[in-house]
Known about the structure:
The chain is an alpha/beta fold.
Amino acid sequence: MKTYNIALIPGDGIGKDVTESAWQVMQAAAKRGGFALDGKRFPWSCAYYLETGAMMPPDGIETLRKFDAIYLGAVGWSAEVPDSVSLHGLLLPIRKGFTQYANIRPHRLLPGVQGPLRSDGFDILCIRENTEGEYSGAGGRVHSGTANEVAIETAIFTRAGVERIMRFGFEQARARRKKLASVTKSNAQKHSMVFWDEVTREIAKDYPDVEVSHYHIDAMAARMVLAPESLDVIVASNLFGDILTDIGAAIQGGLGYAASANINPDRSAPSMFEPVHGSAPDIAHLGVANPIAAIWSGAMMLEHLGEGHAAAEVMSAIESITARGIGTIAGKDRTETITQAVLAALS
């Protein structure tokens, strides 16, 4: 029997609850599919930071490297640990350390879920550059605490980085409806974003079968609201992709349905899978978090591991319960109720 070793990082708040839900479903899918998932849990979180002074130990990246995939619940507890500390102490080091340069977030309405828009025919795959750009962490502050204080944040775009995310996007578009939208702000950012546009046009020559459109970030934000059905694959920088995928989550019914994958496309290191939502301290431990985004992320993990049939069965189970109204209204169904419904549909 094929066995996959999975690193589980439940994290903070509702991350613990939804990770448990997703893990139950993934285990059930593995049993049906004739393979096994061997999970090891790591306590790395804001609570871990308060105990140790670090979000993960110094050898955390090397510890994770031996796993086939990483599954993360949610990280962050801003009342106790600044978000800049938790993000730069755990999530970003994993993404960068394992060259998970493609962040993939699917946006579509599940059956039975009512989004805020009239349109229900959209199916968008948003691909966000995940390791450089505006989240590179380059910069600093001088004259801190004085009237002359200066803060500099430098966005870094490399040709290699832009080329590889664009090629990844074009390959995804080629496998879907052959439409790709590249998002920049090149009218205002005349260096980095003009560079992005130029590289995109160069790469596009290798994909003559894919229709390419270029949008400014503000225009794309409007289009996702007004005409989401017109979009197929969107490729954007780290910051712009982060913003657009929250719009995508909103139009698909909320963050409770927003799944994601942090992919190392050449598989030289493990990829990481996580729901888009945060740790939601206000509802932590109440047992009412919607685990669908977490379970969907688990399905994306199974797909990446090569277990496509099991992934499809999980997605079918999710769609069957939402079609019956389970998990479609925030707070109506408890986490355990939704989880058990998915498990029943899976079996």
